[in-house]
């Protein structure tokens, strides 16, 4: 298992992605701002479409952090050989329009950093072995 962290700062706040490579799978955690949290969970694999769950926020609306997750997912989809789960939660108190606009570029930058890291650290583990339908554990 490999772990790495990338960050980008702009417009007065920092966004970070924690990357865990677990066998052929990826677990990415996008956090930042004044109150990091898990606002959304986005999943996909080489053979399944992008799916997102948006959790309720403190004021009754739902979190919109999937916009950040989807930015990374689109950049990484071709590189993922297993599954990919992305949790995202960035909250900046009293966020400005400038900070909202900066978020897309920050997520794009993080995706580029993760993509470059994946090129340098490809999955090299052997595939798991399974019993055939005619076999049973001994």
From TrEMBL:
Organism domain of life = Bacteria
Q: Which InterPro entries match?
A: LpdD_chaperone-like
Give start and end of each Prenylated flavin chaperone LpdD-like domain: 10-118
> What name goes with this protein?
Amino acid decarboxylase
Organism for this UniProt entry:
Loigolactobacillus jiayinensis
Task: Provide the organism lineage as a comma list.
Answer: Bacteria, Bacillati, Bacillota, Bacilli, Lactobacillales
């Amino acid at each position: 298992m490999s772990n790495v962290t990338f960050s980008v700062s702009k417009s007065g706040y920092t966004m970070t992605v924690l990357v865990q490579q677990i066998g052929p799978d990826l677990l990415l955690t996008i956090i930042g701002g004044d109150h990091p949290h898990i606002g959304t969970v986005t999943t996909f694999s080489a053979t399944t479409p992008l799916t997102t769950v948006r959790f309720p926020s403190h004021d009754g609306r739902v979190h919109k952090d999937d916009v950040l997750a989807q930015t990374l997912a689109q950049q990484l989809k071709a590189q993922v050989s297993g599954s990919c789960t992305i949790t995202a939660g960035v909250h900046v108190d009293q966020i400005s329009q400038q900070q909202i606009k900066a978020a897309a570029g920050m997520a794009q930058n993080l995706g580029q950093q993760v993509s470059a890291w994946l090129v340098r650290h490809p999955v090299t583990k052997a595939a798991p072995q399974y019993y055939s339908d005619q076999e049973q554990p001994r």
